[in-house]
Amino acid sequence: MSSSRVVSTRARARYSTSKVVLSVVGVVVALVWFFPVYWMLNSSLLSNVVLTSNAPSFAPIGGSFDNFVSVFQGGSFLPALGMSVVIALLVVAVCLLFAFLAAVAISRFRFRGRTGFVLAILFVQMLPAEGLFIAQYKLMSSVGLLNSVIGISILYIASVVPFTIWMLRGFVAGIPADLEEAAMVDGLSRTQAFLRITFPLLAPGLVASGVYAFLQSWNEFTVALVVLQDQSSQTLPLWLRGFIQASASKAIDWGQVMAASTLVAIPVIIFFLLVQGRMTSGLVGGAVKG
Amino acid sequence: MTAMSTRLTVPRRRRRLAPYALLVPTVVVLVLAMGYPLAWQLVTSLQQFGLAQQFGQPAPFVGLGNYIRLATDPYLWTVVGRSLLFCFATAAATMLIGTLLALLMRAVPAAVRIMLQIALLLAWAMPVVAAMTVWTWLFDWHRGVVNWLLSAAGLPFQQHNWLQNPLSFFAVAAIIVIWMSVPFVAFSLFAGLTQVPEEVLEAAQMDGATPAQRFWRITVPIIRPVISIVLLLQIIWDLRVFTQIKLLQDSGSIASETNLLGTYIYQLGAGSSDFGTASAVSIFVLILTIALSGFYVRSMLKEDKA
Predict the structure, then answer these.
(1) What would the mean pLDDT of B217-234 be, rounded to a whole number?
(2) ipTM for the whole complex
């Protein structure tokens, strides 16, 4: 604080007490926000006997990984995991390819219809799944793609690709075309110049958008609920839902549910921490230059 | 356009068509997965399309019949009013808490700030369905820690069922939505606050401006663009809280008393196979979203031009 010169000692004392109060508030808020995540981990390690006792245990003392073991042994986790992974990989791969091509088009070319296309992807990106999912269900059932990986992947790709284009566009535009041209002067073809010069520079952008596509597909619930109704084609969010359905009327093994939730959440949390900055700046755009 | 100068090496025609060729895959998948359902939905919203049509009967056109029936149905207006109220209340609370936390993060020492950032990031990163199972467990009527804490504080919350009463159902839903959305607001505004020049604030302080004056007269005008975009995104996102509401309904409450627009459409379409009415409500939701998105898209487009 360079202004401390003009601040009197009494004001400084007041300043430091207010700093202490604010710090305490900050710590309390952090704990409150963290508590649900902590509670998930804590409960996932405790046995059902402990969880249904009269007072809750606030630390996993005497805990074990038994809940995780029984989730794996339950038999329905691995198929759902497989389904989620296959869909996510397909969505990421196809989205990156499509979005990359489109991003090159809108950041390297000026053409008739460009503004219209940008406008369209910005609007499509805002459309809520709830506004279309009944019609998407009818479409999938009429072409026989209900409960199939291909069917749901097509729907996911369409809903994720607009924002992926938007993210990649910034990266492509940030690479000067001069670089490619210089390489072409040195005798590379346009394609070679692109692959050897531009593509490596794009890698961070591709990683960020790929992770974004992964998270969207991994977490999606609404469309999956209507399109994947078979027990055998459930993705992880649907599988998790099965645990808490009608929890008012039946006894739930909360330890197992929390272990299951932890398993679903961990890859997401890791990936999310990797790309959080990019996603924020993509969403609020030029309004924040963090 | 420097890129254009390379066209000497490529035939002119191919250069002109190249951007369109690059857009083909995206356009095809968007038309297939969104354009076609949208068109189907528009047509179906003008038809009587129920169970009989599911089994192959032709769907008779009823013009604006579905819309008129909906517009005169008090239940739809209840759902619309509920959705808007829930949306504005959660968006306002999220903005308020998010702004306060952004200011708090600026004011506290680095160690506390990092604690806050980690906690917020974790909440933000939680997959929505996993977050819902955790919150359902926290608010479980029988063994939930919330009831235990409140009872321990001497309040009559033993075996209290939060999801049975619509009002407390929505209070729980709002707490969950706010918990999940505050991190985005706090981080965006925190980034925005770094743009406020320290010297200007100091100068104002020396001129005798109170903290409140400095906030409203200097900070807010400078970060207004961030505030408006974040607020708009919150409103749009809080209109689509299907997952949270559906999962809370699943764990035991009366759907008709707790429906918001998303779950109402689901109930009409997937529950009673009334695709005509479901389509009409969907179109209404889409129009509402597009109207709200207009401002956001315009500001994004400005960035694209820049």
Answers:
(1) 90
(2) 0.88
